[in-house]
User: Fold this.
Amino acid sequence: MRVIILGSGSPLPDPERAGPSTLLRTRAGDLLFDAGRGVLMRAASAGSSASALRAVFLTHLHSDHLTDLNDVFTTRWVTSLVPNPLTVLGPHGTAELLDATRAMLERDIAYRMTHHADLTWPPASDVTEVERGVVFDDGGVRVTAAPTDHSPVRPTVGYRVEDEGHSVVVAGDTVPCEGLDELCRGADVLVHTVVRRDLIEMLGLPRLMDVLDYHSSVPDAARTAARAGVRTLVLTHLVPAPAPGTEGEWLDQAAAEFAGEVLLASDLLSVEVGT
Ligand SMILES: [Zn+2]
Assistant:
């Protein structure tokens, strides 16, 4: 199994960082977790594509995690030679989101179906709303969901993917919580979104200060990894984006709480699991 961080950024546009999105290359195919800004450009760099995805998993319905889901939905449709519904799993609200996405694209769908004689079907999705337990089991790959805590955003879920005896957890946005601890127990890799509490407090901007109470700081994520006995912690969704030369500060903050390997994500960071 391979983990590829497609987007290591946040809601704040950054020329070097696409929006939150992680690709897991498994025996069951490519599994996409969240679909932030620029996801398909980064997927192309990683050798994947909308039409190749086995399934998309959403951690929650914040815009920065799904703003390019409509691109995945449309591009899969126009690049598939046969009907190829997009499998989407996510928390309650995901079905409504896909309905609304289709409605938003109604004119585009009509234009293309009128213009392309061979495109005789509209785009489709196969949506499952998930909360807890095994939500995907295919080709020896199993995905388990558990509730996380990103209050007042509700509901939110994290995912654990198991393939060939190895495991990767994609946490999404959350503060430390029991559901995440459960998912992380003994995992090989934990991909965790984080913010820098110290820098945000120093900046003191009210709207940025608001993000502190529903995200994990770097030490929070590191303590979660330590409690669960995770092997490798990947820090992503970096707020604020690390200024050049300050990457070591992020790693040091995590290392103070967690003795395992810590990686600071940049787009297309790739981690092989199980070799
Ligand atoms: Zn969020």
